Amino acid sequence: MFLEFLVWFLLLGLKSVASQQEDVGFTYNGFQGVNMSLDSLAQITDNGLLMLVNNTNQQVSHVFFPHPIHFSNSSTGNALSFSTTFVFAIGKTRFGGPGMAIVIGTSREFPDALPSGYFGHFNMTNISKPSDHVIAIELDCLQNKEFNDIDGNHVGIDINDLKSVQSAPASYFSDKENRYVNLSLTSGQPLQLWVEYYGAENQLNVTLAPINVPKPTTPLLSLKIDLSQYIVDPMYVGFSSATYLLPISYYVLGLSFKMNGEARELTLSQLPKLRQTRHKMRPRLFIVAFSVIGVTSVLISIFILQFIAKKKKKFAQVLEDWKLDY
Fold this sequence. Notes:
Elements: H1 2-22, E1 25-28, E2 37-40, E3 43-44, E4 50-53, E5 60-64, E6 82-90, E7 100-105, E8 135-140, E9 154-159, E10 166-169, E11 171-174, E12 179-182, E13 191-198, E14 203-210, E15 221-224, E16 236-242, E17 250-259, H2 283-318, H3 321-324
Antiparallel strand pairs: 1-17, 2-5, 3-4, 4-17, 5-16, 6-13, 6-17, 7-8, 7-16, 8-9, 9-10, 11-12, 13-14, 14-15
C-alpha cells in the first residue's frame, strides 16, 4: 500500500510540474525591472521601453524570455496551443528598414546571423533548412526580392525561411467599415499584434491593429499548419531584429504570453510612452550644404576679382603719361 501511495504521489507531482511547465504565462506592461535575455544593441530604457536596436547601421539584436518553454505535449509530441500579444513601434522613416520579428526558436543566440534582410536570425548558409526549427512572424519594412517579399510594408509567417508561407500588406479588418484598413509599420505610432495557435485545429492566426482599436474579429493572416514537425522541446520565445544602411529604431512597449490559453490583455494605460523626438538633419547633410556654399562663394569671389582686374586694365590703357601725375 505504501509503495502504491508513493508511486501515485510521485506521478501526481510529475503531472503537476508538467502542467505548470505547459501553462507558462507572463504579462509585461512595460519592461522596467523585467528579467529578459538581451544581446547586442538591445536594451531597456529608463522609462521601461524595450529598445531592440538604435540608430547603429548593419547590426543585429535579440531579446528573449530567459527560460525555456515546452511547446509540445510530452506524451503525444503534438504542438500545444499558445497565444501572445505585444505592442510595438517602429521609428518613423521614409525609406523603411529590415523590420523585426517575434521568434520561437531552439536557442536565444544566433551568433552567425546576418543583419539587413536576414532579420538577425538567419544567414546565407543555414536558411531554409529543416534543422533550423525557427517559427517567426515578421514585420517587414523593406521589400527584398530575394525572399519574394510582396512589398516594403507587410506581415508574414516564416517557417525555417524568410520566404513567408503566407503574408499580407500591413492592415487590419475594420468591423465598422467592413473592410481592411491600411497601416504603416514605420509611422512611428504604436501598433498591436496578436499571434494565436490552436493545437487541436492546427490553426495559426495573426492579427494587427492600432492600439486605439479593439482586437479585430477577422485576423490578417490565417494559416492551416501543424507546428508539431517544427517544434523541438524546449524552445524560447522572443524578438529578433536588424538594421540596414539607414538609421531606424524598434521598440516593444508591452508583451503578454500564455501556453494553453489566451494571453492576458495588456493594460494600455500602463505602457511606457514613446519619446517624441524630432528628426534632426544628419551632420553629413550640414557638411554637404556648407561645402556647396563655400565652393559657390569662392567662385563668385574669383569672378568679382577678375572683373575688377579687367576694368582696371581697361582704364589704365586710356590714361596718357602726362595724366598720371594728376
